[in-house]
From TrEMBL:
This is Transcriptional regulator. Residues 101-211 form the GAF domain. It holds the Pfam family GAF. It comes from the Bacteria. It comes from Mangrovihabitans endophyticus. The lineage of its organism: Bacteria, Bacillati, Actinomycetota, Actinomycetes, Micromonosporales. InterPro entries: GAF, GAF-like_dom_sf.
Length: 426
C-alpha cells in the first residue's frame, strides 16, 4: 500500500477486505497468531490492545458524566476550537450518515455530534461524550490510535479491535498546542465503509491544522522565542524559530535543568545534577557544546551556563498557574511527570517536587472533577488517597460509586492497608 495511513488501496474490494481482515482478527484474538494480512499500524495497535488485556468484545467505559463532563470540557483548550470543527465538518454531522467527535489527549470524548438516528447507534457502543476511547480502554479505533501514533489515519471496519465497533469506519487526526507542541486531543469523523477514501483523511487532517492555527492566533511567539515540552515525555520537544526538535535524553535533561535554574549553573553543578558522584567534566562540556549548536548562541550563555529569558517550558507554566491558584488550568497543562524515564538526580528532584505540588493542589481543591481527572490519568491510577477522596465525593447511587469503592479496596489490599474512606483535606 502506497500510503500506510489509508485503509484501502484505490482498487481494493471493500467487502473482500473486510472478510480478510476479520479472519486475521479472529486468528489474532483467539490464537495470538501473526497478523501479516493487516496494515502495520493496525497490527501494532492490536498488539497494544491485547497487551492492555482488553477483551475483543469490550466497550469503552464512560468516565465523565453530567456536571463533571460539562466542567471538564468547558475548561479544555479544544473548547475554543469547537466553532472550527462545526464550521468545517458540520455538514457531515447533519447528513444522517456521519458523526464528528472531539476527544482529549487521553481519548476521552468531549463532543459527539450528528443526526439523532446515527447518535443512537453510536450510543450502543458507548461512543458518547465522557467515554474513554484510547487504545487501552477501547482497542484499535481512529481517535485512540491517532493519539497513540500521533498521526492522522483511518481505521476501517474489521480493523477495529473491539467487535462491537467493527461495523463502523472512521478517520481521525491529532491536534497539538501550536506553541508548545503538546498533544491536546483529536478530531474524528465516524460513519460507514464509504469513509475509507483519501478525502476523509485529508479532511480531518485539514480540520486539525485549521484548529491549531486558530488556537495559535493572537499568541504567536516573537522571533527567537522558544518553548520546551517535557511533561509526560521521555525526550523533550523544543520549538524554536518555527522548527520542532526532539532532543535526546541527555540534552533533554540538560535543558530542563537549565530552565529550572534561570540564574545559571556551572559545569560542575550540572554534572552533579546529571551524574551524582560519577562526574566527568569532559563529558559535560561536550554535551553542552552539542546543546549550544542545537539552541544557537542566542539562547545559551556560558560562565555560568544559562538560558535566555525568552525560553518557556510547560512545567514552568504549571508552577506559575499553581502560584496563581489556577488549579484547573494547571492540571489541564500538566501532561504527566517530568521526563519520566530520567534517573538524573536533579531531574528526579524536580519531578517529585512538581508532582507533589500538583497533587497537593488537586487534593486540597476538593473538586470532584479535578480529582476524577487525576485518578483516571496514568500517573494517578494507583493513588489510594486520591481514590478515597473521589469515592467520598460520589453520591451512593452514582454509576461510578461502586467502581470507585472497588478501586479503593483493590489498592488498599495491594498496599497491605485497611480500607478506609476519608474526606479530602482542605
Amino acid at each position: 500500500m502506497s500510503n500506510p495511513w489509508l485503509a484501502l488501496d484505490h482498487d481494493a474490494d471493500p467487502l473482500e477486505r473486510i472478510r480478510q481482515v476479520a479472519r486475521a482478527h479472529e486468528r489474532f484474538v483467539t490464537e495470538g497468531r501473526a497478523v501479516a494480512q493487516v496494515r502495520g499500524v493496525v497490527a501494532d495497535s492490536w498488539r497494544r490492545s491485547a497487551g492492555a488485556r482488553l477483551s475483543a468484545d469490550s466497550t469503552a467505559p464512560i468516565e465523565l458524566a453530567t456536571d463533571d463532563l460539562e466542567a471538564y470540557r468547558e475548561a479544555h483548550p479544544l473548547a475554543r476550537a469547537l466553532p472550527i470543527f462545526r464550521d468545517l465538518l458540520g455538514g457531515l454531522a447533519e447528513d444522517g450518515d456521519h458523526l464528528i467527535a472531539v476527544c482529549d489527549a487521553d481519548g476521552r470524548l468531549l463532543w459527539v455530534e450528528g443526526h439523532a438516528s446515527i447518535l443512537s447507534g453510536a450510543a450502543s457502543m458507548n461512543f458518547v461524550p465522557g467515554a474513554r476511547w484510547d487504545e487501552a480502554h477501547a482497542g484499535t479505533n481512529a481517535p485512540g490510535t491517532a493519539l497513540a501514533v500521533d498521526h492522522p489515519l483511518q481505521i476501517f471496519a474489521t480493523e477495529h479491535y473491539s467487535r462491537p465497533v467493527q461495523r463502523w469506519t472512521c478517520a481521525a487526526a491529532p491536534i497539538h498546542d501550536p506553541v508548545t507542541g503538546r498533544l491536546l486531543g483529536a478530531i474524528d469523523v465516524t460513519g460507514g465503509d464509504h469513509l475509507a477514501n483519501p478525502h476523509s483523511l485529508a479532511l480531518v487532517r485539514a480540520t486539525a491544522l485549521a484548529a491549531e492555527a486558530f488556537l495559535g492566533s493572537g499568541r504567536a511567539p516573537h522571533a527567537g522565542h522558544a518553548t520546551v515540552t517535557a511533561l509526560g515525555r521521555d525526550e523533550a520537544l523544543l520549538s524554536v524559530r518555527g522548527n520542532r526538535i526532539r532532543l535526546g535524553r541527555r540534552h533533554s535533561e540538560l535543558l530542563v535543568l537549565l530552565l529550572a535554574h534561570p540564574e545559571g549553573r556551572t559545569g560542575d553543578q550540572l554534572g552533579v545534577d546529571l551524574y551524582a558522584d560519577d562526574l566527568n567534566p569532559v563529558t559535560i562540556r561536550a554535551e553542552l557544546s552539542r546543546l549550544r549548536r542545537i539552541l544557537g548562541p542566542h539562547l545559551l550563555d556560558s560562565r555560568p551556563y544559562r538560558l535566555h529569558t525568552d525560553v518557556d517550558a510547560d512545567f514552568s507554566a504549571v508552577l506559575r498557574l499553581l502560584e496563581l491558584g489556577r488549579v484547573r488550568d494547571a492540571l489541564s497543562t500538566y501532561a504527566g511527570p517530568l521526563l519520566p524515564a530520567s534517573d538524573a538526580p536533579g531531574v528526579v528532584r524536580l519531578r517529585r517536587m512538581l508532582d507533589g505540588q500538583v497533587r497537593a493542589a488537586v487534593l486540597a481543591s476538593a473538586d470532584r472533577g479535578l480529582i476524577h481527572t487525576w485518578v483516571h490519568a496514568p500517573w494517578g491510577a494507583d493513588d489510594l488517597e486520591m481514590w478515597q477522596a473521589y469515592a467520598t465525593m460520589l453520591p451512593p447511587g452514582a454509576p461510578a460509586h461502586p467502581l470507585a469503592l472497588h478501586r479503593v479496596a483493590q489498592l488498599a489490599a495491594e498496599y497491605g492497608l485497611a480500607t478506609s474512606l476519608q474526606r479530602p483535606r482542605n
